[in-house]
Specification:
The complex is a heterodimer of chains A (about 500) and B (about 140). Chain A is of the alpha+beta class. Chain A is about 35% helix and about 25% strand. Chain A has 16 helices and 19 strands. Chain B has one domain: Archease domain (Archease, Possible Chaperone, Chain: A, domain 1), CATH 3.55.10. In chain B, strands 1, 2, 6, 7 and 8 form a five-stranded antiparallel beta sheet that branches. In chain B, strands 3-5-4 form a three-stranded antiparallel beta sheet, with helices on one face.
Amino acid sequence: MHSHPVVTSKDFHRLSPYLYEVPRSFREDMRVPARFYANSQLLEAIKDDKSLGQLVNTATMPGVVKYALAMPDIHQGYGFPIGGVIATELPDGVISPGGVGYDINCGVRLLGTHIDREEIAPHLDELATVLYANCPSGVGKGGNIKLKRGELDRLVEEGAQWALSRGYASAEDLEKTEESGRVEGADASKVSTRAMQRGASQVGTLGAGNHFIEVDVVDQVFDSTAADRMGLSPGRIAVQIHCGSRGFGHQVCTDYVKQFQRVIHKYGIKLPDRELVCAPLSSPEGQDYLAAMKAAANYAFANRQVLTHHIRRSFDQVLAGKVSNHRIYQIYDIAHNMAKIEKHQVNGQKKEVCVHRKGATRAFGPGSPVLPGIYRDIGQPVLVPGSMGTASWVLLGTQGSMDQTFGSTCHGAGRMMSRRQAKREVWGSDLRDELEAAGIHVRAGSMPGLAEEAPTAYKDVDLVVEVVHEAGIAKKVARIIPVAVIKG
Amino acid sequence: MSPLTSPNDFEVVDHTADWALRIYGSDLTQLLSNAAIGMASLMVQDIRQVPVHVERYLELEAYDAETLLVDWLTELAFWAEDEQLIFPEISLSDVTDTHLKASLKGSRVAELLKHIKAVTYHNLEIEKTERGLAATVVFDV
């Protein structure tokens, strides 16, 4: 199992200034070549961990077409690398729970405001405190939403639509959410009792790890037409939410990775890593996982929607009567851990494929019929959070992403230092003091947890974005920088 | 009753995005026990300080030894998430590659340092080494 050769510099070559390829001949079990996006600086970080070997492993998945891909924020995960994208051809190509990950539909929501930096400044400290109090965070922390009997079934089948019916959303919020906040085909009966139990109390909670709520200010605008359309202008306040499907999604993945340990033998599938276990999309097991994964995706959309409600309450509580207009509007909401059935060009033909994005963002270009009317002519907004205390980016999907990457692009900065090393090198309380000194208000439940997320543990998000922009698989719209961070 | 494990029975292995443990044991029973203590040590400052007020019992059937190891740790991670329960005392019996019985003693802790979201199968293989059995488990955090 560990006998595969390590990928070194001599095993890949440059196809274009920002694109590299490990040819299919590298390992006999590869079905397609493996490609990754990088520049020379990012390449150094990528070579340091085991992510390229993991990328090569994904090129062995049954039914994989064209090439296995990794975005420039690629780093070592388990099974798939984080930043990995593959497409498997229907009907018999596979779906892999590990290729979606445990935090199904982990994603990012960006909210816009009418408030300028100067206007919010005197109230920011109080706002950070109130956001921290109103948005439950931390290990296993339960939320304050009580679900009626049977209501969780409805929530996981309807996603953000459920939140609308409970008064936690506006129709505009849903329209500006990937899949309108509701993935069709979710089936609560394909989800275990344990997953329902874990999910029941966690609706509207942030969790721990790298999840956060951030109050940001627009620093720079690169595409004023697109920025205007989104309601972003220099100096304007915006809010980001980064979280997913909590214990519900973790359990769905755990259950199906376990079940598929046995299932792969039934279908004669051989894999280089047990975390990659999968089942043909045409099989009952594959279909069951897809329906359960969709339920978890809907849970995450509902979760970010309820958190949006808590953020609105917090703005209301702190800013009503103190700023001219404290209304918050949705800009967009994207998933970055998901498998989706989409149509893409494969060998000159439009084919139905299952695109696995594991730490990668859908980035559909202009004209895509699935985009809301307001964004259809400019392309899909792509939200790329940076590491804590650093910039985040708003991008657009392009024709280039449709042509090159199955309509996908990067999802973040990408780690380069282990959590253990970060904890050794950084004290959480020192980091908090540094961020506060830089004018960023921090509220965090755990100081060691804060240290693990130190910006020095991550690559420079600006470099990652530069690569996707130059490679043409996304286009810069705006750069935003934090003024308050809420973490579990 | 397996005694509280010595520090050499597991070690933290560097992993970019998550946490990983290299776990050793003279046999499968010892490996499973050390894995449980190792995972708990990621979640609390000092497992030796956790009192033993609460008792739990567990019986698991699994597909093979690796699946048994993941299922076992998954159950313990669930109790930690759901009830903040940590178990410093573990007694395993009737252990085979596909079955175990466990009797656990521990208590609720005020705060967990880390949330183990899931126990993965990434490159998971229980290997025979000079020290007995060994396995590397990667946790999603």
